[in-house]
Amino acid sequence: MRTIALVTQKGGSGKSTIASSLAVAAHEAGERVFVIDMDPQASLLRWYKLREDKSIAVEAVSAAKLPAAIAALAKSGVTLVIIDTPGSDSAVSQAAMKAADLCIIPSRPNAFDLWASESTRQMLKSLKKEFVFLLNQCPPSQQSARVQDGAKALEAMGGIITPLVGSRVDFQEAARYGWGVTEINPAGYAADEVRKLWSSLKRRLPKAVKAAPAKPAAAPAKPAAAPAKPVAKAPEPVRQDNRKKAA
Ligand SMILES: Nc1ncnc2c1ncn2[C@@H]1O[C@H](COP(=O)(O)OP(=O)(O)OP(=O)(O)O)[C@@H](O)[C@H]1O
Ligand SMILES: [Mg+2]
Question: Considering the entire predicted model, what is its pTM?
Fold first, then answer.
């Protein structure tokens, strides 16, 4: 089992958005995915409530219970855990960093996000954790000087994962309906980027992975906390020809 955490003290950089679509893309690629939502905003618990397909589990787990939850998941046959964290430097983010084999620091190509990324990087360095930066919400023409500068700055800070992720309406629409971008528009640019992102991450993970148990145990992981209050079911989106309805 491998564990990825999305961390950065900067709110709105795209942790929950990337976590949800990445979970779906990895699931479609054959992983048994479990999502841990550590953010009191409960974005991914809400996303899960909207999903008809419940094959990707999402649970809230507290910082104190995280190590035990990860240990239980490792024995349950789950192959990939994705942890979403709050946008602040907190005990919660640090617990997620410690539990992860690889941390992703999403950053938009703007000065405030880049500065915040640096402080997250320092925290990860002090914890001696593996991390990569992810440049998210890039303007569609990825050639702009701002994007190039952002990519260079993150590369200099310790390494940026490819591809750069564009600012695309599919991410917002998918989140609204409890889908991943590969479900709402499988042939779209956002879907292509997220599939490539999973491939890149997968290549990096074996270096960071801890020894997996020889044989997965049968017992499933125990939910660590009650899910957030249910949210109203969103209306069915207008279907496109290339859009697959979530099963
Ligand atoms: N690649 C993208 N393209 C378009 N919109 C995006 C993209 N990534 C994120 N967004 C949008 O940016 C906003 C913030 O994203 P998100 O909630 O995922 O950030 P976050 O890091 O989880 O924030 P917080 O720290 O508050 O939890 C949302 O409205 C989301 O739809
Ligand atoms: Mg979030």
Answer: 0.85
Residue 197 CA: which ligand is closest?
1
Mean pLDDT score of the chain: 85
Amino acid (one-letter) located at 243: R
How much is the pLDDT for 227? Answer: 42
Report the CATH number at residue 64: 3.40.50.300
Ligand lying closest to the C-alpha of residue 13? 1
- Rounded CA separation 176/148 (Å): 30
**213-245 residue pLDDT tens:** 545 544 444 444 444 444 444 444 444 444 444
Q: What letter represents residue 57's amino acid?
A: A
Question: Looking at ligand 1, which residue's alpha carbon is closest to its atom 16?
Answer: 14
Q: Which residues surround ligand 2, an ion (CB under 5 A)?
A: 15-16, 43
Structure tokens at 205: 């993970």
18 CA to centre of ligand 1 in angstroms: 8
- Residue (of 217, 228, 161, 227) closest to 194 by Cα position: 161
- Owning domain of residue 126: 2-204
pLDDT confidence bin for 150, thresholds 50/70/90: confident
- Domain membership flag for residue 15: yes
- Classify 159 in phi/psi space as left (phi over 0), alpha (psi -120 to 50) or beta: left
Task: Report residues whose beta carbon is within 6 angstroms of any ligand 1 atom.
Answer: 11-17, 39, 41, 43, 87, 136-137, 165, 167-168, 171-172, 175
225 domain-assigned: no
